[in-house]
Write a structure and sequence with these properties.
Length: 117
């Protein structure tokens, strides 16, 4: 397939970020996107998540792996954030594996993971 066609079908680059809690993941994504703004987060239904709710449930809501994290100034990337594996042990690891497996079966190229960091 022509690379330009692939690029068109992907639309926005979908990146899964894996790393320890508080390791600096969000900071790296801000650098990559050349911004200092806070990410905007959408749940899997495409609804914007209220930042106040995120503050209250930092450890759960924020790290739902299905959530889509974007920076408004750089809409070319969608990030999925995984909790550090040390936090939940085996169940967290299984969640990441299941997420990767299910995304690899998505029919549309734009819904698949394009990069895992
Ligand atoms: N010294 C130092 N601090 C950093 C660096 N990168 C990030 N930080 C700080 O570390 C803290 C955590 O950074 P985040 O980017 O929020 O880390 P995170 O991995 O997204 O954290 P969670 O989403 O809570 O898991 C923040 O206070 C950052 O300012 C770095 O390279 N050096
Ligand atoms: Mg973060």
């Amino acid at each position: 397939m022509d690379p330009l066609t692939i690029r068109e079908r992907i639309g926005r680059f979908r990146i899964l970020v894996v790393g320890r809690a508080n390791a600096g993941k969000t900071t790296i994504l801000q650098r990559v996107c050349n911004t200092r703004e806070n990410p905007v987060i959408y749940n899997s239904a495409g609804e914007k998540i209220d930042p106040a709710v995120l503050e209250a449930s930092r450890d759960r809501g924020l790290h739902d792996i299905e959530n889509e994290m974007t920076f408004e100034s750089n809409p070319g990337f969608i990030f999925h954030d995984s909790r550090g594996f040390e936090a939940g042990g085996e169940s967290e690891f299984d969640k990441v594996k299941a997420f990767i497996a299910s995304r690899s079966k998505e029919a549309r190229l734009k819904d698949r993971l394009h990069v895992i960091w």
